[in-house]
Amino acid sequence: MKIFLKLFVLLGCAFAVAAHAKEIKLLNVSYDPTRELYQDYNAAFARYWKAKTGDNVVVAQSHGGSGKQAQSVINGLEADVVTLALAYDIDAIAQQAKLLPADWQKRLPNNSTPYTSTIVFLVRKGNPKGIKDWDDLVKLNVVVVTPNPKTSGGARWNYLAAWAYALDKYGHDDAKARDFIKRLYKNVPVLDSGARGSTTTFVEREIGDVLLAWENEAHLAIKQFGVDKFDIVTPPLSILAEPPVAVVDKVAKKRGTTEVAQAYLEYLYSDEGQDIAGRNFYRPRSEKAAAKYAIQFSPVKLVTVDEVFGGWQKAQKAHFADGGVFDQIFQP
Amino acid sequence: MVPASTLHAPRRAAPRRVTAEPPFVRWLLIGVALLFLGLFLVVPLAAVFVEAFAKGVGYYFHTFNDANTLSAIKLTFITAAIAVPLNCVFGVAAAWAIAKFDFRGKTVLITLIDLPFSVSPVVSGMIYVLLFGAQGLLGPWLLEHNIKIIFAVPGIVLATMFVTFPFVARELIPLMQAQGRTEEEAARVLGASGWQTFWRVTLPNIKWGLLYGVILCNARAMGEFGAVSVVSGHIRGQTNTIPLHVEILYNEYNFVGAFAVASLLTFLAVVTLALKTWAERKNAALRGTGN
């Protein structure tokens, strides 16, 4: 018991010291593949904020599948800011928990998305199955790895990109697009709950011929594991993925962090913020950073959710809600 | 039961073979068992340490020199330090009531104690989200009073307690039942109070069994993943325990780091196992002399 007592005393001291060093704490609840991005960015923002105000900012991170993370915020995870994979998940926080206004997406430039990305294919070196386009994914002998669209934001972008391709190919015939998606998901042996889980399934456990991945996630896998292991295949048509950011008003107000939380998101649009996004393989919004990093992105025709599906609310309801198209076509 | 040796004392020098199987069958069975043990237990265990030291001893210790890792270790110890003593008190109380007294609803109580064993850990976590989450039963009230339970340390401790609830009680109930009530009855007759009976008679009788239960409870408390994962919120440096931190490191392509932290957990498990064996022996020896 003496040991426990000592432990408690020690812990007590540790907390006391932490309380003396005045610093602002923020919690950024984010989706899966942004770990490296925000690790870089949080350090940069802390420097910026220290120079500007003299205060120390420590940004804590929580990562997971985008839908799961939104659910945690709804259930009471006190995020000052959310940086999720798609607008629908932040809409859900606004609707179900009323923690921020419904028109949150209008508060920052570019639909509150400081960087964009798209969906590409990561294949084994030399592309042994010759995968060039979405068509190749439904071939009988191709094993596709993608996360679960019910919990993962990236997975929903994957699904919608494939659907957009099928609509384009079959002259906007919904039934044929549905059949295409059904055949595609027949080739999927595992549905991980988040994008990073799928990446480790593909790269570490060596399951599958092709990983449907965020462009940044595919580049990062190559950076981590070497150019001799994988190739990136950018299909001719894909979807413009816009992962938005927002201050969670009620939480920030309660914790007295509104000002710094706002600045944290605005700084993403600064030259430094944009450069960090480009360095981490996101497509920056600013022309300067976009030009600097243009060489790492292949040209691709990008369609948007608004054009093809009439917005996230409609897409979510038709495809991913309980009993939606995904539930109808996917039988494990 | 009367041991066979006392019946055939003279023939003890040449004991009869236990089985009549030919040697190759016996060796085959033993071989299969050893192979299985090796493949599914020893090799993975060794793999953890091989992976952990893949980049050398320096890198191994470098992994632990990280604020998030240290915080995960700290949180795991805090959680165990709260959950285990509380479950210990509860376990003793429950076992005492069940083994030494008769009352209505006893079987229901026994079943309830076993509940955490039969419920999936994920469900155990969800229970607390449904109860204490912002959209849950008590959520709005907690929010109003600014009390944080889930996605904070109290939630992690609660979930851990729920999952490790049965260990002490389950260990003590059969032991106390086997010991019977005679010694306690004698103490009462001689004028001891309930409290005295417990401290002087019951506790000394069950101490090794109790220690065994506490060790098991502690092992599970430090290793629990599922239930804690649901209520943690996964905030680095704040609400990650060792098992959750291992997953994060692994997902960040820091495989050596993940295995290094996992090796700490493995090491704790091995220490637990050694302690457990020791407690078990003491327990058996004591029971032997007791008879």
Global shape of chain A:
globular
Total DSSP E strands of chain A:
12
Terminus-to-terminus distance of chain A = 51 Å
| Main pleated-sheet profile of chain B | none
Q: Tell me the β content of chain B.
A: under 5%
| Shape field of chain B | globular
**Element string of chain B (H = helix, E = strand):** HHHHHHHHHHHHHH
Helix % of chain A is 40-55%
- The class by helix and strand makeup of chain B works out as mainly alpha
How would you name the oligomeric state of the polypeptide chains in this document? heterodimer
- The average pLDDT of chain B is 86
Radius of gyration of chain A, whole Å: 21 Å
Report low-confidence residues of chain A grouped into runs of 5 or more: 13-21
> Kindly state the mean pLDDT of chain A as a whole number?
90
Distance between the termini of chain B: 12 Å
The number of distinct β-strands of chain B equals: 0
Largest sheet of chain A: 4 strands, mixed
Task: Explain how this protein is built.
The complex is a heterodimer of chains A (332) and B (291). Chain A has 332 residues and is α/β, with parallel strands linked by helices. Chain A is built from 16 helices and twelve strands. Chain A has helices at residues 2-20, 35-53, 66-74, 87-97, 109-112, 153-169, 174-186, 195-203, 215-225, 249-255, 258-266, 271-279, 287-293, 305-309, 312-320, 325-329; strands at 23-31, 56-64, 81-83, 115-116, 119-124, 144-145, 210-214, 230-233, 237-239, 245-247, 283-284, 301-303. Chain A has a four-stranded mixed beta sheet. In chain A, strands 6-7-5-8 form a four-stranded mixed beta sheet. Chain A is globular, with a radius of gyration of 21 Å. Chain A starts with a helix and ends with a helix. With 291 residues, chain B is an all-alpha fold. In chain B, 77% of the residues lie in helices and 0% in strands. Chain B has 14 helices and no strands. Chain B has helices at 4-7, 23-52, 56-64, 67-100, 106-118, 121-132, 139-144, 153-164, 166-179, 182-189, 194-223, 226-232, 242-251, 255-290. In chain B, helix 3 crosses helix 14, helix 6 (121-132) packs across helix 8 (153-164) and helix 13 packs antiparallel against helix 14. The longest helix of chain B is centred in the C-terminal third of the chain and has 36 residues, at 255-290. The radius of gyration of chain B is 24 Å and the shape is globular. Mean pLDDT of chain B is 86; it is low at 1-11. Classes of the chains: A alpha/beta (332), B mainly alpha (291). At the A-B interface, helix 1, strand 2 and helix 8 of A face helix 4 and helix 13 of B.
